[in-house]
Specification:
This protein is an alpha/beta fold and 616 residues long. Helices cover 56% and strands 10% of the residues. The protein is built from 22 helices and 14 strands.
């Protein structure tokens, strides 16, 4: 996705605060080499540097084909000449070899040590500082209905939205995390009517249930009663749609909705009471998940503004009215169809409400970019919304981003709210913590811990496993969540990463007790192995990974980078002694290397909203 011009200028300005990477250093020298060898000026975009493939010797590979027009030589001779120049003039290149049109370069040991010293000197390596003039990104996620508790689908939404917020902040953007609560409409009236008919005054206090669970039960009850009623009507010969329209329950629910829109005091009072029960329940779940919002909007406050904007659009000829009084947008000129904005009875639809919410947000904040975290079943909706907002004159309309993600299912299949077959978020969180406790106990990880530490570690590991399992998957893909697979102390799991972090922290505590200074720079004469060079290179990759995750809107890039880093560290940990290394320079190097792996793991996991324990 292309950056908006304001974003591009801002990021260019930010480059002056960045420390040059090995790749940038070598790229600059290649530009100089082409100038001196062949008298040609080449743009930086022509420099193609990539990691050397494992079957060849070297760290970085330069593709020389773009320079043949300047060299007037074949690829091998061109690569040889550039390689000789770099080995003589660029301290970062200690050796090279040529394979056809590819120049494989070996980075000097001193350069790797210098790079590690640089990373070690930056507590927030890879994270861009947010300046007061940074572009403002608003990210909407969660978007629950107040007729049911949060479920597994909401969990993926919230985790993606919160992580994306952290990633955008790490890329130097100011971020406003926002939520739009669907607190009005026929689905809300269904729960209200069911409670009114069969609730007998039940409350969260009298039932011992969280408010969102209590209201969700009445939503399921309404649909159960509705099904009984429509099945009788269908048996009389009516179609399913006709039966639902003739149902007394649906007629009562629609009558309640009309009363709500008319401001009926009794209906509004019931609505406020039941919604407040739900909000209290949502807050508990959000707190348990570790997600939060800077601003919450409510559809009950935005739909009238949306109607006003639609009516303004009607007056300006942007929209049109049909004979039945309904208002539509003709988008056939944009390659789409016609879109309903106001029903014939004057009531609004979701699109109208989203227009109203956008208006409020645009008034409240100087938005540079608006990102909606919503499932891929709404792709068309946001395509239409973008066009409508642009037609209505909103600056961010054309550039709005729909962070479209796939559905999450269980091994047993899809979930259905109406039938009460969803996986409740609170139950899932409790089950993950319980499972983490049981597995950790089996492995003996709690043997020397207090009951308080056991509770805390169980929570950290359980939630970390849940979050990581969901976030490691490409957001665009549908996924199957298997709780049993998510907690495993081996493999691509959150608990494996958390355990490795705790292991490193244990090593560092022992090193600190021995009086080793982690902050003192390492001498560039320290000898290191290829495995250690590879690990430093992997650490340096974190900065580029954070940038790419922000550009691609993909927490999965952070998650899988972290797993690769931890996997590589564990191979190093297995092959090399750290605390028992006799050579003091090597010992100090390995401790500082380990400390920076832990630092990057902590930073990366925080971008995913995952805690890491000091001991396990």
């Amino acid at each position: 996705m292309k950056l908006q011009s304001a974003d591009y200028l801002y990021l260019c300005t930010r480059k002056q605060f960045e420390i040059m990477t090995v790749e940038q250093q070598i790229s600059n020298s290649v530009i100089t080499a082409i100038k001196e060898l062949y008298g040609a000026d080449i743009p930086a975009e022509q420099i193609q540097l990539q990691k050397t493939r494992k079957e060849f010797s070297g760290h970085l590979t330069l593709v020389v084909f773009p320079f043949l027009r300047a060299s007037h030589q074949n690829p091998e001779l061109t690569a040889q000449a550039i390689g000789e120049y770099l080995k003589k003039n660029e301290p970062a290149v200690s050796d090279f070899n040529v394979v056809k049109g590819f120049l494989n370069m070996t980075v000097s040991c001193a350069t790797w040590i210098d790079l590690l010293n640089s990373i070690n000197s930056q507590p927030d390596f890879g994270i861009t500082k947010i300046l007061p003039d940074a572009p403002l990104v608003m990210i909407e996620y969660s978007s629950p209905n107040t007729n049911k508790p949060l479920h597994l689908g909401h969990v993926r939404n919230n985790l993606l939205g919160f992580s994306l917020s952290e990633i955008m902040k790490a890329n130097g953007y100011r971020v406003v995390r926002t939520n739009i609560v669907n607190d009005r409409g026929i689905h809300i009236c269904k729960s209200m009517l069911a409670w009114q008919k069969w609730g007998n005054g039940e409350t969260p206090e009298s039932s011992g249930k969280k408010g969102d669970h209590l209201i969700g039960d009445y939503y399921v009850l309404f649909n159960s009663k509705l099904k009984e009623e429509t099945e009788k009507l269908e048996a009389e010969g009516f179609t399913k749609e006709e039966a639902e329209n003739k149902s007394s329950l649906m007629l009562e629910a629609h009558a309640m909705l009309r009363k709500w829109e008319a401001g009926d005091k009794e209906v509004r009072s019931l609505w406020e009471m039941m919604n407040n029960w739900v909000y209290a329940g949502f807050d508990e779940t959000y707190k348990a998940l570790g997600v939060a919002f800077d601003k919450i909007y409510y559809e009950s406050q935005t739909y009238l503004i949306g109607k006003q904007k639609v009516e303004e659009g009607l007056e300006k000829g942007i929209f049109y009215k049909r004979p039945d009084g309904s208002v539509w947008a003709d988008l056939t000129g944009d390659g789409l169809d016609e879109k309903l904005l106001l029903r014939s009875d004057g009531t609004s639809v979701y699109m109208t409400q989203d227009i109203g919410t956008a208006k409020m947000r645009f008034d409240d904040f100087p938005i540079s970019k608006m990102i909606y975290v919503v499932g891929n079943e709404q792709n068309y909706h946001f395509q239409v919304l973008s066009i409508l907002l642009d037609k209505l004159g909103f600056a961010f309309g054309k550039g709005l981003v729909h962070f479209s993600y796939g559905m999450v299912e269980l091994p047993e299949g899809k979930m259905k709210s109406r039938e009460g077959t969803v996986v409740d978020a609170d139950d899932l969180i409790a089950e993950m913590i319980k499972t983490a406790r049981e597995i950790s106990q089996e492995l003996g990880k709690f043997d020397d811990m207090t009951p308080e530490e056991v509770d805390n570690i169980s929570r950290i590991v359980g939630l970390g496993s849940l979050k990581y399992f969901i976030l490691k998957v490409d957001p665009k893909k549908n996924m199957t969540f298997n709780p049993k697979e998510s907690i495993d102390f081996n493999g691509n799991t959150g608990s494996f990463i958390q355990y490795t972090y705790a292991r490193i922290r244990s090593v560092l505590r022992k090193a600190a007790s021995d009086g080793i200074d982690f902050q003192e720079p390492l001498p560039i004469t320290t000898e290191i192995s290829e495995k250690e060079e590879s690990l430093i290179q992997k650490l340096a990759d974190f900065a580029d990974t954070v940038k790419e995750a922000g550009e691609e809107y993909s927490p999965a890039l952070i998650a899988n980078y972290t797993y690769d880093l931890v996997k590589e560290f564990n191979q190093f940990y297995h092959d090399y002694s750290i605390l028992h290394e006799e050579n003091l320079d090597k010992k100090k190097f390995r401790i500082i290397l380990s400390a920076n792996v832990a630092k990057i793991v902590r930073s990366a996991m925080s971008l995913l909203g995952i805690e890491v324990p000091e001991r396990m």
